[in-house]
Every structure is written in structure tokens, then in C-alpha cells.
Design brief:
The chain has a domain of about 50 residues. It starts with 10 loop residues before the first strand and ends with a helix. It has about 80 residues and is of the alpha+beta class. Bound molecules: zinc ion.
């Protein structure tokens, strides 16, 4: 699979730290499986992983702590 961003690098299976900030809290998910471009570092999530991350976002929003750090392996 070629990188959509630089169009020359290869996307390789990897893991990344995913983080996002909502209105007043920040969520960090460690060890999220992804594809990473070996050349420019562009990260791509598969549809199933993106879906799971969405579910986690919702859960974290309910917890409403300022900073939530989760491990993908443990919650997926
Ligand atoms: Zn790239």
C-alpha cells in the first residue's frame, strides 16, 4: 500500500499514540494499531480501528476527566 500523503513511501503496519482533545479534556490512547508511512510518517487507521477509537472517545467523554490515558490493547 502506497502512502496517500507523499505518494512514494510504503505504508507499514505499526502502532502509534493517538491523541485528541475534546472541549475540556484530552484523550491519549497508547498502542493503537495503524499503518505508518516509512518515508513521511503519515499515519492511517483501518476502518475497524477508527471505529473503535470513536467508541473510546465517547466513553472518555462520559468519564470527563481532564486527561484520560488508555491502552488500546486492554480496552479493544
Ligand atoms: Zn508518506
Amino acid at each position: 500500500m502506497k502512502c496517500l500523503s507523499c505518494k512514494s513511501g510504503d505504508m507499514e503496519a505499526s502502532v502509534t499514540i493517538y491523541f485528541t482533545d475534546l472541549k475540556n479534556c484530552m484523550i491519549i490512547i497508547k498502542n493503537a494499531p495503524c499503518y505508518k508511512c516509512e518515508q513521511c510518517g503519515e499515519v492511517l487507521f483501518s476502518a475497524s480501528v477508527a471505529e473503535k477509537l470513536d467508541v473510546l472517545m465517547d466513553k472518555a467523554e462520559i468519564l470527563a476527566s481532564e486527561l484520560t490515558i488508555m491502552e488500546y490493547d486492554r480496552i479493544a
